[in-house]
Design a protein that fits this description.
The protein is mostly helical. The chain is about 60% helix and about 0% strand. The protein has 5 helices and no strands. Helix 2 runs antiparallel to helix 3 and helix 2 runs parallel beside helix 5. The longest helix is centred in the C-terminal third of the chain and has 21 residues.
Length: about 130
């Protein structure tokens, strides 16, 4: 009987191997929930915002990958190419927090003060 349970215990991930990043018990539904929450948060930003357009496209692409994988964690990790699925969850959580901050800051609105001369000029550009 021991021989039958040994492969099963080897298939269970006990660590990510990354300090401070633990194994998530059920990462796929949490990742889907985080992507959907990000899309909901982005809906509060005007559609003309470049930030919204970029993040929305990327988040939808990642959500499609996760949904197409039908719960296969190895496939999700390979297609997202962000390392462990826990890392993808960490990245998604950070993006959700940033989207909330962008709404708070109203980053799409014009500047309150006129920028100083040369502030938006970069070295090597004409």
């Amino acid at each position: 009987m021991f021989r039958f349970t040994r492969p099963l215990s080897q298939a269970i991930k006990h660590t990510t191997g990354i300090t401070g990043l633990g194994v998530h018990a059920n990462p796929v539904p949490e990742l889907i929930k985080t992507y959907e929450a990000t899309l909901t948060q982005l809906s509060e930003i005007p559609q003309t915002s470049v930030y919204r357009q970029g993040v929305e496209a990327l988040t939808r692409h990642k959500l499609n990958i996760v949904n197409a994988a039908s719960g296969d964690i190895a496939s999700i990790e390979k297609e997202l190419n962000e390392g462990h699925i826990e890392e993808s969850l960490d990245i998604a959580s950070d993006e959700l927090k940033l989207a909330a901050k962008m709404v708070e800051w109203k980053a799409w609105e014009p500047l309150e003060e006129k920028p100083e001369r040369g502030q938006w000029e970069y070295v090597g550009t004409p």
